[in-house]
Amino acid sequence: MNIWGVFSTQGSQGVGAVKSLDAAQAAVKQQGVGEVHDAVTLSVDAVRSADAAADIRFDRVNAIRAAIADGSYDTDDKLDIALDRLLDRLG
User: Fold this and answer.
1) Number of H helices and number of E strands within the chain?
2) H/E stretch holding 77
3) Where does the pLDDT of residue 46 fall: very low under 50, low under 70, confident under 90, or very high at 90 and above?
């Protein structure tokens, strides 16, 4: 049985087009990509809106930023809680 994608800008692809992790890592090495970094860009309006919000706890935001930076933010317990909340919402 073939399963074809419904939403694709490149046209439909079969399930066989999904590559393994090893194949993806090999492609990354071949293309010369050393590291992948995430980035977020905020508009001026978004920054102004955030500055205007009185209920932002900047002490908490800074603590979370520090935990993310030192690698201690993501824990298995937090992942379990997030998954439980998601499953509760999905019913």
Assistant:
1) 4, 0
2) helix 76-90
3) confident
